[in-house]
Amino acid sequence: MSKKRIAIGALGGTISMTASQSGGVTATLGARELAQGVPGIADMADFSLQTLQKLPSGSIRFEHLFNCLAWAEKEVEKGADGVIITQGTDTLEESAFFLDLFWRHPQPLVLMGAMRSPEEPGADGAANLLASVTVACSQESVNRGVLVVMNDEIHEARHVRKVHSSRVNAFESPVFGLAGVVLEKQVQYFRATVRKPQLAIPASTSAKVLLLEHTLDDDPDILSLAIAHGACQAVVVAGFGSGHVSESLRDVLVVAAERIPVVVCSRTGAGSTTQAVYGYKGAEIDLQKNGVLMGRWLCPRKTRLLLAVALWNNCDREQIKDLLVQWSASH
């Protein structure tokens, strides 16, 4: 059998970082150097290697991800059986979800990185890249959209979260669990992946979505000022518990929801917002009666991305509500 053709694009991040004269590590390695650092990788596939950026992941912008998307689609058009993007882990879950909103191809798009730089003892980058190639080459990965591969674990983009700042098993899918694993150089999936409706690549990305974490006795005037000055065209609130806010913030959100989309999520890190449990002022029943949408199973960060892309596609409130239901569903 002929080898699969896999494209690897490097964005930077810890996996690419080596010691610098100024102290600490910075991004220096490109796609070719990363691939050369993995023993046996050349026997697994034919590779197209491209260094796209050398950035810490906190500096990745939407424009960089759109460039990655365009590059990945060109590689598929040229015959790639799978595409891998290496980047830093700080924003990996967000990049993966953002790309999944647009990725229409059956070929797998795999995102991965490393928790330890190449010069550290126990560096995990080479193993993660090897596992990612295994996933990208597997026929079982077809029609699964965007996947994240870290620590021999396979995660769906909409479920994965970084849950630890530094350990090598920093990534989990705390709500619905792993999609699969790489074991003995083979891919094993635990369930089918149901693709969600992708959105069109927009002509403009000018609309801004504000993400606000609600905290004890905070000041809702900050949000009022942001809305009044046109600093955002939509709002996502990481609310208390299963999607609740204080009475004072509730009053601000109700007024805002008359003008712009407002979504309340849970700030807890796991679980869904409730739909019809709590009836007090500022709880989900009251909020929904007054035009506020609930984020359901999506975390606040991914809800912000979905809402932004929806606005760029000129979606109205009902279309946004449908997207929240579709993209947060467990299946």
TrEMBL record:
Domain (L-asparaginase N-terminal): residue spans on this chain: 5-193
Keyword Hydrolase: yes
Pfam (any one): Asparaginase_C
Gene3D superfamilies recorded: 3.40.50.40, L-asparaginase, N-terminal domain (3.40.50.1170)
InterPro entries: AsnASE_II (IPR004550), Asp/glu_Ase-like_sf (IPR036152), Asparaginase/glutaminase-like (IPR006034), Asparaginase_C (IPR040919), L-asparaginase_C (IPR027473), L-asparaginase_N (IPR027474), L-asparaginase_N_sf (IPR037152)
Sequence ranges assigned to domain Asparaginase/glutaminase C-terminal in this UniProt record: 208-323
PROSITE patterns: ASN_GLN_ASE_3
Keyword Kinase (UniProt): no
Domain of life: Bacteria
UniProt keyword list: Hydrolase
Family membership noted in the UniProt record: Belongs to the asparaginase 1 family.
PANTHER family associated with the record: 60 KDA LYSOPHOSPHOLIPASE, L-ASPARAGINASE
Protein name: Asparaginase
